[in-house]
Amino acid sequence: MRVTLTPIHRREHGISGTIAVLQDITEQERLEQSRREFVANVSHELRTPLTTIKSYAEALDEGAMDERELGQRFVGVIRNETERMIRLVTDLLHLSRLDSNQAPLRRQQTNMPEMLEEVADRFSFQMRKKSIRASVRVEDDITTVWLDRDQIDQVLDNLVSNAIKYTLDGGRIEITARRMHARAAGSMPEQSDAYPSSERSSRPGRTEFATRASESGDQGRQEPSSIAISVKDTGIGIPKRDLGRIFDRFYRVDKARSRSMGGTGLGLSIAREIVKAHGGSIALDSELNEGTTVTVVLPLLTGGETS
Ligand code: ADP
Question: Which atom of ligand 1 is nearest to the CA of 291?
C-alpha cells in the first residue's frame, strides 16, 4: 500500500487540510516483478547458447578444426545452438505480437477432422521414430468450425510436439475433438454425452480435470456450445507441484531436459495466448509417470462472429 499525503493550502489560513491517497501497489509490484523475471529469463536463455557457441568456436580456432571428426561435431553443436536461438527469438516475437494484439485473428471455415488428421500427419515421422502410436477421433457431428487455422495449427503443433517429446518410445497419443455443453461462464464445460463413456470415466482415485492448470480467456461470459480438442499422451507426466506454473513463460519441469529436446519453454504460453484470443480456455491434466492431457476449449462459432 502506498500512501501519498498532499497538504491543502488556503492563502489566509495556511494549511487547512490534507488529501491522503491510498494506492494499492500490490498488483503493480507483481507486474513489475514478473517483468523483471521475464527479462532475466530472456537474458539467461540467450546467454546460454551464446556461451556455448563462443567456447566451441574458440575450440575450433585452437585446433579442433584440424581433426575432421571433432571439427564436424563442434560445428554441429554450433548449428544446433544457433537454431535454438532462432526458435527462441521467433517465439518471443510471436508472444510479443500476441501481447500487443498485433496478431489479429483471421478466422476461416475450418474442417475439424481434416485439421486434426493433418497435424497427426505432420508429426508421423517423429512418432514413427519413437514407435509412438497415434489416433485421431472426432465426433461425427463436428464438421466445420470458424477459427484462425494458422494459429490453431500452431497450438496443436506445440501440444503434439510436447506429447512426443515427453512420451517414451512405444507410447500412445490420442487427438480427439468433442462437443461440450457450457455449464457456467469461466468454468470448464461439461462433456457431451455423445463422447464414449470409456473416455469419460475417471480412473479410481482421480477426478476428471481435478489437478489441472487452467487459463480462461473468457471469464464471466456465458458461452454457447463449445468444442474441446484434447491431446492425450501416455508420457512421463508432470508433478503436481509444477502444474500451477506450467503455463508461465519459460517455466519447465526439467530445464535441462527441455533444452536438450530443443524446447524454449514458451510453447504452452503461446498456446494459451492464441486460445485466449479465440475466446477459449486451455487446461492441463497430468499424472506423473502416467501421462498428460491438454484440452483446448473453443467456443463453437459457425461463421461471421468475432469471437
Ligand atoms: P518446452 O519448450 O520446454 O516444451 P512448453 O511451454 O511447451 O515448453 O512446456 C513447458 C513445460 O511443460 C515443458 O518443459 C515440460 O516440462 C512440461 N510439459 C509440457 N507438455 C508436456 C507433456 N505432454 N508431458 C510432460 N510434460 C510436459
Answer: 24
266 in contact with ligand 1, CB cutoff 6 A: yes
CB 23 within 8 A of CB 2: yes
Record the cell numbers describing residue 248, joined without a space: 508461465
CA distance linking residue 291 with residue 173, whole number of Å: 10
Residue-wise pLDDT tens digits, 45-75: 999 999 999 999 999 999 988 999 999 999 9
Q: Report the relative pairing of strands 108-111 and 144-147 from DSSP bridges.
A: antiparallel
Q: For residue 233, list its beta bridge partners.
A: 173, 292
With a 6 Å cutoff on the Cβ, whether 258 touches ligand 1 is: yes
Alpha-carbon distance of 48 to 46, in angstroms, equals 6
Tell me: ipTM over 0.85. Answer: yes
- Least Cα distance to 174 among 122, 130, 231 occurs for 231
Sign of CA dihedral 200, 206, 210, 214: negative
Question: Structure pTM?
Answer: 0.78
Pairing of strands 281-287, 2-10: unpaired
Ligand 1 centre to CA of 306 (Å) is: 31
